[in-house]
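Predict structure. Chain length: 452.
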Amino acid sequence: MPPYDATPAPQGAPRYRAVTRSNVRKTAQWSKLPPEMREAIEVVSQVLPFRTNPYVMDELIDWDEVPNDPLYQLTFVQKGMLSDADYAKMAELVRNDAPKGEIKLVANAIRRRLNPHPAGQMTHNVPKIDGRGLPGLQHKYDQTVLLFPSQGQTCHAYCTFCFRWAQFVGLDDLKFQAQETTDLQDYLRAHHEVSDVLITGGDPMIMKTKALRAYIEPLLAPEFEHVTSIRIGTKSVAYWPQRYLTDPDADDLLRLFEQVVASGKHLAIMGHYNHPRELSTKVAKDAVRRIRSTGANVRMQSPLIRHVNDDANAWAELWKEGVKLGAIPYYMFVERDTGPKAYFQVPLVRAWGIFRDAYQQVSGLARTVRGPSMSAFPGKVLVDGVAEVAGEKVFCLQLLQGRDGDWVRRPFFAKYDENASWLTDLKPAFGEDRFFFEDEPRVSPPRRLDVV
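Prediction complete.
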């Protein structure tokens, strides 16, 4: 008998079914939406990805509270996600039943104006071997390599705020995806500073276990003993927890987790939980318990999102529930400068206040969480607080991770700006003309990504 919970899946277990623009009209909830909200879904989903599923619609969204329900805002595209001009142009095309090619041309032009790859993802993070770029890999911080498996470039449902939205809109030149498993292995053989591999997407848990195993099992070989941790970034724990309970290969997935742990490596499921309601259902709680029974850890992370979780009590409730289930609070991020950021952004000073107020409500077991943190070009920039120093009101900042390891945990200060919502909105304090990390060349990639 394996140590994980191997209770057989019940007869008639739900099977995953995607709800998209093409079939959302067939759902029972569609008739509850007023015409202007239906039009917004039709129009905005031509530009930004829209995908959900019956579990999200039936179990997580409170339809009596729509459109203000946070889970509806999280999963259904909204009119305000496009500028007035872009919305009007796209709405005219949809109303006039314009040819698909014409709609696609306009949609792609809008998409390319939405900063599809922030923080140097395309220009500075792609590693090389012998001068050849490795598609589907990113290496920004010394210790961690990201892998984007090609089979995992979709999700059980799309988050409307997602900074990886460009993976899902059909523009191949905007995608990260690894077609081969050998590139990762070759790169790891040459880079023993890498201790962590983060498998991300999309969502790797959309893949069948057999496909996921092909990426993970080779990393358990003795030659990769320097890789001590494997992380899997996933929203499935919230959007389709049945992946760990009743899907046809759920047991095989847990056996894979158990195999990783038995090899001596740390396995972390990086659960994307944006709202406490995502942990309120029995299946969501059972999924966490079943994952943890393999020896894997579950960690919780999310950006702070206006209309969804810009409330300290919601964050405190989420962290408390996570701790109760054994999931570790990990990060509160600042919404990235991509896609419909204007719709979701929260000023940094308010983000810090929400974090502080939530942090005050939880015990030390939940204070593993860090934030609010910006995953910006130089690294993960933490907003430590607001203070008055030498008569000047300032933001106190530091890098939790950096392109240059010497930058990490080095305090720095920015002029106080109540409207700033991202690092690039900030200016150095005390008369300085630039931040210390801006002395690093911003054109060529870091040296460690050069030919090996």
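Summary: Residues 441-452 have pLDDT under 50 and may be disordered.
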